[in-house]
Amino acid sequence: MAAVPAPPPPLLASHAAVRATASDVSRFRGARLAGDHPPQVAALRRGDWVKLICGASFEDAADVRNLSLVYTLAGVDCIDCAADASVVGAVNEGIDVAASIIPAVQRPWVMVSVNDDCRDLHFRKAEFDPEDCPPDCSKPCEKVCPADAISLESIMVGGEHTRSDPLHGKLKGGVLTERCYGCGRCLPVCPYDRIRAVSYVRDPITTSELLKRNDVDAIEIHTTGKGTDTFDALWNSFSESINNVKLVAVSLPDIGESTVDFMNVLYAIMEPHLQGYNLWQLDGRPMSGDIGRGATRETVSFAIHMASVPERPPGFYQLAGGTNSYTIDCLKKAGLFQSMTFPGTTTSETISSQQALIGGIAYGGYARKIIGRTLRKIPAQFGRVHIEDHPDHLLEALQDALSLVGPVKGYPALSSMK
Ligand code: SF4
Ligand code: SF4
Known about the structure:
Bound molecules: iron/sulfur cluster
Number of strands: 12
InterPro entries: 4Fe4S_Fe-S-bd (IPR017896), 4Fe4S_Fe_S_CS (IPR017900), Fe-S-bd_prot_LdpA_C (IPR021039), LdpA_Fe-S-bd (IPR057431), PSI_iron-sulfur_center (IPR050157)
Shape: globular
Keywords: 4Fe-4S, Iron, Iron-sulfur, Metal-binding
CATH architecture of the largest domain: Alpha-Beta Barrel
CATH topology of the largest domain: TIM Barrel
Largest sheet: 8 strands, parallel, barrel
Protein name: 4Fe-4S ferredoxin-type domain-containing protein
Radius of gyration: 23 Å
Mean pLDDT: 90
Helix content: 25-40%
Pfam family, one: LdpA_C
Organism: Setaria italica
CATH superfamily of the largest domain: Aldolase class I
Structural class: alpha/beta
CATH class of the largest domain: Alpha Beta
């Protein structure tokens, strides 16, 4: 008598629709693996690399875990997170859960983000003391925060309830530090100027230890373009650990005509100790992708600027800062989407290495926003949410993630999603 196959574990049994969708993604990607390169590098060469940015300062481990799970199933190449051990653990846990649903899923590279000085806007947190707030404030800070990082409650003072007499109450709560990623939108809306931004620099010793972990594959160094000394010092502090990672990214703003000279100085600093791949993140309008269509213009302009300068340093180039669902169309209009040639030139000027001018796109605020909509639908009584415990929500989040990742990757209409 034939043996009865064992039933699938409960997690797998409840995810038939998710498995069907993510398996289509996995098969499509498996068929595209290229040559001797790691799949992530093959994606950069083709121009279809996608990175999820969890946020250099975003440290809510529960959200980071769920985001990592969903975007791993959607097929991102890399997940960029805060250089913090618990956040790195959360990213890897999300990837592990994705692998338990689709064993053939390609694990994205895990990247930690650091800064070389405190002027980079990604490395700050909002702060205020709610005791200093007028009790009748309409709390515009709470409404404007895209990360739900401000939570305020009116409380009674001396037995009177603030709802009936707000001037005799007070506010409690404030900024949820682990959720604040420093976007700064709360700062100008406070009518009483109570909110301040506190900047910081990631500790290089802690970062060096993270780089030695097997579950960290890449580092990104944010620099402001205001000088190279701090970059030099930080780079030297990584001399013992930098070659444990496969990819070194440098994130920088467009500083005009001197941008390429600045990048070439940075490359000269890195080159003696650079054994893996390197990437330049063209940071257009930081932390603004969720605002709307226009936010993506600056990063695409930055890409056009870079493409026009033949003396730019070696490495892959990737967009970030204001990226959203409009970015691909803008890049196509500029003739830079997966283009191997300079726009407007003849094919005889094709780049000899056959590497796309723009290797791909990183999505941050917009990627988090579209998944956040689904996460917020899960009833609050579930406390710390594991999205895989809610298969319908996981499927919805995966479909949203695919709407962003799919156009870059060129996924065909997935039969499982029809
Ligand atoms: S800086 Fe941005 S993320 Fe942080 S509390 Fe203010 S609005 Fe929210
Ligand atoms: S807007 Fe300003 S004063 Fe009002 S609750 Fe927020 S921080 Fe306090």
